[in-house]
Sequence to fold (916 residues):
Amino acid sequence: MKKNQIPHQIILPASELPKQWYNVRADMPNLPAPYLSPRTHKEVTAEELGAIFPKSLIEQELTTERYIDIPKEVMEKYELFRSTPMHRAYELEKALGTPARIYYKYEGTNPSGSHKLNSAVPQAYFNKIEGIKRLTTETGAGQWGTALSMATKMFDMECTVYMVKVSYQQKPYRRSIMQMYGAGVIPSPSDQTQVGRGILAKMPDTNGSLGDAIAEAVEDAASHSDTNYALGSVLNHVILHQSVIGLEAKKQMEMVDEYPDIVIGCNGGGSNFSGIAFPFLKDTFDGKEHAKFIAVEAEACPKLTKGVFTYDYGDSAGMAPITMMYSLGHSFHPSGIHAGGLRYHGDSPLLSQLYHDGFIEAAAVGQKEVFEAALLFAQTEAIVPAPESSHAICQAIKEANKCKESGEEKVILFNLSGNGYFDMTAYDMYLSGKIGDGIPGLEEEIARAQGEIKDLGL
Amino acid sequence: MKKNQIPHQIILPASELPKQWYNVRADMPNLPAPYLSPRTHKEVTAEELGAIFPKSLIEQELTTERYIDIPKEVMEKYELFRSTPMHRAYELEKALGTPARIYYKYEGTNPSGSHKLNSAVPQAYFNKIEGIKRLTTETGAGQWGTALSMATKMFDMECTVYMVKVSYQQKPYRRSIMQMYGAGVIPSPSDQTQVGRGILAKMPDTNGSLGDAIAEAVEDAASHSDTNYALGSVLNHVILHQSVIGLEAKKQMEMVDEYPDIVIGCNGGGSNFSGIAFPFLKDTFDGKEHAKFIAVEAEACPKLTKGVFTYDYGDSAGMAPITMMYSLGHSFHPSGIHAGGLRYHGDSPLLSQLYHDGFIEAAAVGQKEVFEAALLFAQTEAIVPAPESSHAICQAIKEANKCKESGEEKVILFNLSGNGYFDMTAYDMYLSGKIGDGIPGLEEEIARAQGEIKDLGL
Fold:
């Protein structure tokens, strides 16, 4: 196929939908260090995890099986919204005048608006079959909360969502859509949990953080026997579920006889980046291909580029397992940026280990350049991207511009993890010149939060 | 293929995208009566239409060619977002307990959120190649305005959108998204036009109407030589462009060896209904198949079920061509229902003629039952539907429930013409019990507006 005859949209036939998830733990040279119990500081036991997770997900968390079958009941729900289209970004290429060929996998066509539904559906299912009636969770941008609300409704379960306060305020319609699916939505920190009350006592005006919201959701789940907790990113089983993105993307690239030189995803807790990247990374492990992988984070929350590889708490209150990961410190409070999904202080242990081992690169981009990229993308490709996903767009444009300078015809693939229909407030602010550069006090806040990690003596 | 093994999503391969539009004028037994000039009350001339439309669209308006080639430049843009998926609504069927098999064509995956982009793209293109620099239009729900903003941006043109005031107020984010695409957005009636100033002088507190907004946009276009007007529904060339929906849907039904017994679409100006219905209606004309076609309107704006088949103005100010159609009267002001796209007083002349000749049935549904249907659909099929499209869902559910009573395994196909991501205010009101039944003063308003048609002596 001639490279200029590749269709705008590359659609995977239904018969080609992946039937198994890909588990990077089977192939990575160094497995991440084990989770530690926040109480004992010793390796966490399956029993301890069982307080908030179902057995089947704990198994998925720890297994090194290469492929895990997707249950029939999950496939039936996946078929509601998968496969997702891959686009050749002809219009963006033209606007940039780049010789690079840019592709994006668009996860925003699904009803929750982002890739998060890929993991919400199996998490709801595996909890349901083990008798759990209600799931609690946190949400930042609102995308995970929307996805879990939809997924719990699919399996006739209840759902309680602790929503980071700044997102709750910036995105009122996100709250509404979760309520449409029957979820209870609580701005975090809240007075509904012991943890929340503690945070509010110390910082009554806080914007909230994913760390805080996780702590509240975990406390709620741990204190009710019919209730479990569900996390939308970070953990191995979430990354496992998200592999459907990359597995489809590989087949779609094959359909047009392409292979990416560069694979890009934005990076909050790591799930959408890992989802698209790891199935391609397998080819690196196998010595077949060697793409460059770039995890793109927000300058305001630069865990990979400015954090440390360390054991740290996954939540601000120290209730979740202690994890070996890149972290800015579990007490880090990022400024109120519009990419709520990228405000997490830590990162996926899998992604962290692979970054530490040199398989993955990282980049941090600023909020203003991100919105510039988002607007250019919207005006050329006619899709309104989520601010989170726009970090990936921003980096893709940078790479394409490098190709313009060097004349290289690189193949760039990024994950457009969600749409921005619920982010018009942020776009409004950008269009009216209210989003600037620079993050005052960032270095000091990182130094403070990292000091607290050291004090743990882990 | 066994009927219970049909996939959830039926995806048309890219190679099967329609390359031509289908023109129902080639096959309908009685062509609609000609448009009349609002000035002379005589048959409108191509020259008069040329004041606000390009030659190529006027040709499409009047031709009886059966198939019209889709230009390469339009196909390139279509490929950004077409084909659209057809879904088998297994989850909805289960919730209803119906033996009917329900399918829906989902036009909300495209970046503007509705089917409107199917006509916005060719309209922008045909204007562009005739040297037009700017398009004006009206928008009700905001979907057409969004689509035209995107399409004009694609072809590097300017765009001015007169937005019905009630929609402007209920949907602030719709305004933002049009502005992202560089459009100027003006709440209508406005003080920017002579017509608008006149309406405001008489009714300073009006909610506005599509008729008013059309009048303003037409005046703006007619008074600038580099500017044309673009209409999102009603006219023949719009209906022509929308035939891609039904042409794709026919192929998708063939893929799973099905044919609809009932085809349903909501009906504002007729474009999405006609888009899905007319390619199937061709089989009726050919004597091959005989589906039942149901155009579903809002009880608050019942032009087919309570209007008259008559010559009437297309806009409230009498500037647009006079059209033979079902109408409530060009001065009809509907109450502020949340389906802004269904508030037009008249209807497509093609659809009107076919309804008059008995090929199409009509139904009117109430706002409360529509939101009930929308919520059930969202909770089962996991897509948040636009309030307009939910009228089609509501009727599809009624038909499926009839099948439950009779035991008939009918095949029901409806057009889910758009998503409801920008309609959360309406959903919020519904969830908090603020949307009720009944439309006070409707009968009186219809009587008043129809009296004004009679006074025209057309």
